[in-house]
Design goal:
8 strands, Butyryl-Coa Dehydrogenase, subunit A, domain 1, alpha+beta, 3 domains, eight-stranded mixed beta sheet, 401 residues, Butyryl-CoA Dehydrogenase, subunit A, domain 3, globular, Butyryl-CoA Dehydrogenase, subunit A, domain 2
């Protein structure tokens, strides 16, 4: 498989120079080991649209759940760059499983950073992630409102009660719901001047109803179903900071930073897996009228080179972005996020389609992974923020200056 390099793992209070490379190597070795297991099962999960419980069990057993959690809490203190390398490796095995982990990592990255989190709640979740790991995902999008990236108040409502809150509403695209322990639900309060926050809900709580309506062409095993909340109780302490309705929530801001970098690594990993199979096919395919492998043809080398250079560009973009996020360079990170969305995430489908044109009928055979890579890559374009919004904001920035 084609690997993705990354930077060191750091813990709170340590610099990169203080952390030994052995820890880094061990993390990447675990991810590489999981990649092989996931790859062996991916076709079956895709074919049957079955949830990859076996993948999740192996991932939990690997200890990599604790990657974003701080070392002083018993976690690995992994940076975004390290998490990108892990997700990229998993995505070369099974992108559906990798996407479930993307969401878990992005939430726990904000917990580690603490911005927008009450300390008691953050510490409790961080401890659980290390000692009693359970998957978490943020339930943000809604069937009518769409993605939170477009703004607007959520239709999911939190009603104040003497002992906490009651949540009522419906969320779309709740990836990994069969295996989730927690849901972080974006909702507005029922106050005259609504505030917005994220409410922690056990995934199996009374009143949580899963509508099994995920049936997409790609990422079939993610089970990104809609979830309804009917008067679900939330204790007063299980809520992030509440902000004014027109304010950007700090937890959402942190999640979106990590989400962009991790999704970029995931879709880059999909293309790398497709390229890996295509290279093997082109080296082994010897047409009788040619008498030598397709890989020896200059036109084929040129076509493969297009994908290789695009992946090199991906690597540079992801490395730069992770560095900007780690250094707190907000403006540079915002611009980098837009480029990663447009070039790496949305561009993955074009690259896998290009690989299909090289492989011909063999690439479309369901016994080979390339057609599944392409179907999974198509899903990159539905992740928020959508390409149109990214381009429009870039245009507005230039035209208003």
């Amino acid at each position: 498989m084609i690997s993705i390099p990354t930077s060191r793992v750091v813990s709170r209070g340590e610099s990169a120079e203080q952390v030994g490379g052995a820890n880094q190597d061990a993390i990447l070795a675990r991810a590489a080991s999981l990649r092989g297991l996931l790859a062996d099962r991916a076709a079956g999960h895709d074919r049957d649209a079955g949830f990859p419980f076996d993948d999740i069990a192996d991932f939990i057993a690997s200890g990599l759940m604790a990657l974003p959690s701080w070392g002083e809490a018993g976690g690995l203190g992994g940076s975004l760059a390290t998490a990108q390398a892990v997700i990229g490796s998993l995505a070369q095995g099974d992108p559906s499983t990798a996407l479930v982990i993307v969401n878990h990592y992005m939430v726990h990255a904000t917990i580690a950073a603490r911005a927008g989190w009450p300390e008691a709640l953050a510490a409790r979740l961080e401890d659980e992630n290390v000692r009693r790991p359970g998957l978490i995902n943020a339930a943000l999008a809604e069937p009518d409102l769409g993605s939170a990236s477009y703004g607007g108040l959520p239709e999911t409502v939190a009603t104040a009660m003497p002992d906490g809150w009651r949540i009522t509403g419906r969320k779309a695209y709740v990836t990994g719901i069969p295996a989730l322990a927690w849901l972080l639900v974006r909702a507005r309060t029922d106050e005259p001047a609504p505030r917005v926050g994220l409410f922690l809900v056990p995934a199996r709580a009374d009143g949580v109803i899963v509508h099994r309506n995920w049936d997409h062409v790609g990422m079939r095993a993610t089970h990104s179903h809609e979830v309804e909340f009917r008067d679900v109780a939330v204790p007063a302490g299980d809520v992030t900071d509440l902000v004014e309705s027109d304010a950007r929530h700090p937890v959402l801001g942190g999640m979106m930073r990590w989400n962009t970098g991790l999704l970029g690594a995931l879709y880059d990993g999909i293309v790398r897996a497709g390229l890996d199979w295509t290279v093997g096919f082109l080296r082994g395919r010897v047409p009788s009228n040619l008498g030598q492998p397709l890989a020896t043809l200059p036109s084929v080398q040129d076509a493969v080179g297009r994908v290789v250079l695009a992946l090199d560009e991906n690597r540079m973009l992801l490395d730069l972005y992770a560095g900007d996020v780690a250094a707190g360079r907000a403006e540079a990170a915002d611009r980098g996020a837009a480029v990663i969305k447009a070039r790496v995430i949305d561009g993955a489908a074009d690259l896998t389609l290009h690989l299909l044109s090289l492989a011909g009928n063999a690439g479309l055979n369901a016994r080979n992974p390339l057609e599944r890579c392409h179907r999974d890559a198509l899903c990159g374009r539905i992740h928020a923020p959508h390409g149109e919004l990214v381009r429009r904001k870039a245009g507005q920035r230039v035209l208003a200056s």
